[in-house]
Amino acid sequence: MEKDFKKLAAQYRHELLVNVVPFWEKHSKDTVFGGYFTCLDRQGNVYDTDKFIWLQGRQVWMFSTLFNKVEQKPEWLEMALHGATFLQKYGHDGNLNWYFSLTREGKPLVQPYNIFSDCFATMAFGQLFQATGEARFGEIAQNTFSNILKRSDNPKGQYSKAVPGTRPLKGFSLPMILCNLSLEIEHLLPRDLVEQTIETCIREVMEVFYDPHTGLILENVKPDGSFSDSFEGRLLNPGHAIEAMWFIMDLAVRLNRPALTQQAVEIMLRTLEHGWDKQFGGIFYFMDIKGYPPQQLEWDQKLWWVHVETLISLIKGYALTGNPDCLAWFEKVHDYTWSHFADPEFGEWFGYLNRRGEVLLPLKGGKWKGCFHVPRGLFQVWKTLEKI
């Protein structure tokens, strides 16, 4: 088995460094206006020039991480700085509220309604600070993070379209991402703030959004954590729940809480069992916890990030607990993912498949897919396999 793990680790490493990272290096850099193009077709041609702050931040983070954790290649650092300069100049409103999208030149298109722009800017500048030691990057990360905490009870603020008071709900995405973010930038934060944020996130993810009747994680709950029998309240996003479980495993390791790891592994396996398409293979994008028709018309698509995040969770779960179910599922999801999403011909991976597993959109990047889940996933799985 050890030989297999070595071979697998080499496969993930090779894919990352030979087929995926060079794709973004070659095609995504906007040498005229700065920042990155993310709307890239199968071959890497740019089909739209708008710039999405989520994806700009994620790519700065990715190249900073490669520099910090794989090899200190000057071209990786240069690539990260290239994006960071553009973000610093155009990405926010002057008070570090980060826009959602910009024109190619950097003019704001969509207001800073989306708190995840702020989350990925924090990650980007936190990682870049580690790469360069430049105080200004650390300050951007710290100040943006404190903005996020201020907004966390009402993430969309003035941009929320819900009428206040009728059906108040809170979403899983923010506590989930804060689990990861608090570890990402703990080198910049006071220790008590890190501890407090971590404990709050663990409680939210593992108790508030956890549905004891099904053992699954809900995407939206009432402010007191109770169930809302509505489209939003019944929504399951298997990929989100599974991704959150590896964040929780990382926190459990950091806090030395094996029982928490165990709990995360159980929720992950239950979610995967529930979300796996028994007919065509792959993991559903959205489901209704009561089995009703989901509101999202794309509910049965198979998405790249869902499968990549599942591979990370499974291999971490196996490395930490030795649970044979994690390994059996890892092999199954690995086979599905590599045979459907990878593109050996042009590099990078496809993002969107229909239910039958056929490529639905041949794009390699767009408004939501950038240089993030595939390279981060390949890196995480490679490093975890090496540890095993």
Task: Give an overview of the whole structure.
With 388 residues, this protein is mostly helical. It has a domain at 172-338: Glycosyltransferase (Alpha/alpha barrel). Helix content is 54%, strand content 8%. It has twelve helices and 14 strands. The chain has helices spanning 2-27, 53-69, 74-90, 115-132, 135-151, 173-184, 191-208, 238-255, 258-275, 304-321, 324-340, 373-387, and strands at 39-40, 46-48, 51-52, 101-102, 108-110, 170-171, 210-211, 216-217, 220-221, 235-236, 287-288, 302-303, 352-353, 359-361. The strands form six sheets. Strands 3-4-5 form a three-stranded antiparallel β-sheet. The protein has a three-stranded antiparallel β-sheet with strand order 12-13-14. It has a two-stranded antiparallel ribbon with strand order 1-2. Helix 3 crosses helix 4 (115-132) and helix 8 packs parallel to helix 10 (304-321). The radius of gyration is 20 Å and the shape is globular. The termini are close together. The relative contact order is 0.12.
